[in-house]
Design brief:
Blueprint (H helix, E strand, L loop, with lengths): L2 H14 L3 E2 L24 H5 L8 E9 L1 E2 L2 E2 L13 E10 L4 H15 L7 E6 L11 H8 L7 E4 L1 H4 E3 L4 E12 L3 H6 L13 E14 L5 E14 H8 L12 H11 L9 H21 L8 H20 L11 H7 L6 H4 L1 H32 L3 E2 L1 H11 L3 H9 L4 E2 L1 H18 L18 E4 L6 E3 L1
Parallel strand pairs: 1-2, 6-7, 12-13
Antiparallel strand pairs: 2-5, 3-4, 5-11, 6-9, 8-9, 9-10, 10-11, 14-15
Bound molecules: adenosine-5'-triphosphate (ATP) and magnesium ion (3 copies).
Enzyme class: ligase
GO molecular function, one term: zinc ion binding
Cofactor: Zn(2+)
Length: 474
């Protein structure tokens, strides 16, 4: 099955269960001071759970573009090093707003995975919430009872609060969740653990694919939990992970979600991708991942910039540039050449990229050119700094790399960590603070990073200046 067919199978399945299919919300979050980027399918439905708005349909399903590079969920450092954490990924989800609950959610996830998508039963196991005595929370027996209809009890494991209890924030809707994991170890390896627990979260071939959250409590300001009058279901399944399982691959990067981008990278750089842990192979994975995050975020209206969400994108982009520059020995802009592959691949599901392909390509190319102008010198400078340092580089040095050569702190951290050094980050932050005060004194103007695109048919660009500043759309 192709990835497109798998996505369609998910949406079609929930359509047959009376779900209304809605489009993905933009990856960039507007008007929410608590969140920069969409990091889960439920974000766009937050007001329904909070009771601020009534859901237009009791059952909804979609595929949501998510980004996990900041805040509570930051997977950036895993990306390319492991085979299943991405910066940007698609989260498939189905929701019940005060409609069905545990019985249907569990039954349908089982039906979809084992009957529609034919994942072998003996590869699956699930976790349910073990309860919490301090909070007076019981084991989620309801979920366990539903699972027992479908799966043997030794495949139903108890999970702790960290993994199996979801909360939106310090207060508000929350509840237990049940997660579905796939064990793709070879039969050989699985035999060795027979009789012992099936869970081996550290094994790269045992991965979580789907989380079903049952929102049944409201946490009050004093910390106590109240039963909600209406109970909700909120699920999220990693699309790229699902595709990997169904296509029988050992890595998300071996699926057709990434193969087109990877072959283009290999073509351009005359590299052969072998799927190993060499720096070159990690680089190919990192690039094929990062270009998606960068392209879709720009297409959703966030330009790279020096502050806020724009700086997150700039950091990802510069991280990618340094990877190809150092490990694929490619010294010219590369990422912008990958945009057409992705825009083509996602033309049906996320047409916003195709619609703005020329613009997105231009923005990325200019960003790459700008960073490549200082990268070589910065890399030489960092070598000097490393040779002159003990096991830590000073905040002043890290700040010089940031200020003069455009090295984001996390890039400096990554480069020095490869040589077993760290950065004095609090001293770096102090330097940063000093500079902010200097520039605040110098200028009172703060530029706005947000641009709006694709809101209805009347959206047109009225112009954009340099990448460092802003673009407006009416
Ligand atoms: P993990 O434990 O693997 O980091 P998670 O528990 O943080 O995943 P959830 O918040 O439960 O993830 O999100 C729901 C689903 O989204 C996960 O079951 C997984 O399939 C997928 N997912 C989460 N983070 C990523 C990521 N960085 N890249 C790809 N898929 C992801
Ligand atoms: Mg995680
Ligand atoms: Mg998890
Ligand atoms: Mg989870």
């Amino acid at each position: 099955m192709t990835s497109a067919a798998i996505r369609k199978a998910f949406l079609d399945f929930f359509k047959t269960k009376d779900h209304h299919i809605v489009p993905s919300a933009p990856i960039v979050v507007k008007n929410d001071p608590t969140l920069m980027f969409t990091n889960a399918g439920m974000n766009q439905f937050k007001d329904f759970f909070l009771g601020n708005k009534k859901a237009p349909y009791p059952r909804i399903a979609d595929t949501q573009k998510c980004l996990r590079v900041s805040g509570k969920h930051n997977d950036l450092e895993e990306v390319g090093v492991d085979t299943y954490h991405h910066t940007m990924f698609e989260m498939l989800g189905n929701w019940s707003f005060g409609d069905y609950f545990k019985k249907e959610a569990i039954e349908w996830s089982w039906e979809l995975l084992t009957k529609v998508l034919n994942i072998p039963i003996d590869r699956l196991y699930v976790t349910v919430f073990e309860g919490d005595t301090k909070e007076g929370l019981p084991v989620d027996e309801e979920a366990a009872t539903e699972w027992k209809k479908w799966i043997s009890t030794d495949r139903i494991l108890l999970g702790n609060k960290k993994d199996n209890f979801w909360e939106m924030g310090d207060t508000g809707p929350c509840g237990p969740c049940t997660e579905i994991h796939v064990d793709s170890r070879s039969d050989e390896e699985r035999k060795q653990v027979d009789g012992k627990t099936l869970v081996n979260a550290d094994h790269p071939q045992v991965i979580e694919i789907w989380n079903n959250v049952f929102i049944q409590y409201n946490r009050l300001k004093d910390g106590t939990l109240q039963q909600l009058p209406a109970k909700h279901v909120d699920t999220g399944m990693g699309f790229e992970r699902l595709v990997r399982v169904i296509q029988g691959k050992n890595s998300n990067y071996d699926t057709d979600v990434f193969s087109g981008t990877i072959s283009r990278i290999c073509n351009i750089t005359h590299t052969e991708y072998k799927g190993t842990d060499t720096k070159a192979d990690i680089t190919v994975r990192v690039l094929s991942d990062h270009i998606r995050a960068i392209s879709f975020t720009i297409a959703d209206g966030q330009l790279p910039s020096n502050t806020g969400a724009g700086y997150v994108i700039r950091r990802i982009l510069r991280r990618a540039v340094r990877y190809y520059y150092s490990y694929l020995d490619y010294k010219q802009p590369l990422l912008f050449q990958l945009v057409p592959v992705i825009s083509e691949q996602f033309a049906e599901v996320f047409p916003e990229l195709k619609q703005q392909e020329a613009f997105v390509t231009k923005v990325i190319k200019e960003e790459e050119e700008a960073f490549l102008r200082t990268l070589e010198k910065g890399l030489r400078r960092i070598e000097d700094i490393i040779s002159a340092s003990g096991n830590q580089i000073t905040g002043k040095d890290a700040f010089e790399l940031y200020d003069t050569y455009g090295f984001p702190l996390d890039l400096t951290r990554l480069i020095v960590a490869e040589r077993n050094l760290s950065v004095d980050e609090s001293a770096f932050n102090a330097e940063m603070q000093k500079q902010k005060e200097r520039s605040r004194a110098a200028t009172a103007i703060d530029t706005e990073d947000w641009i709006e695109v694709n809101e209805g048919n009347n959206s047109i660009f009225v112009g954009y200046d340099a990448l460092e500043t802003e673009a407006f759309v009416l």
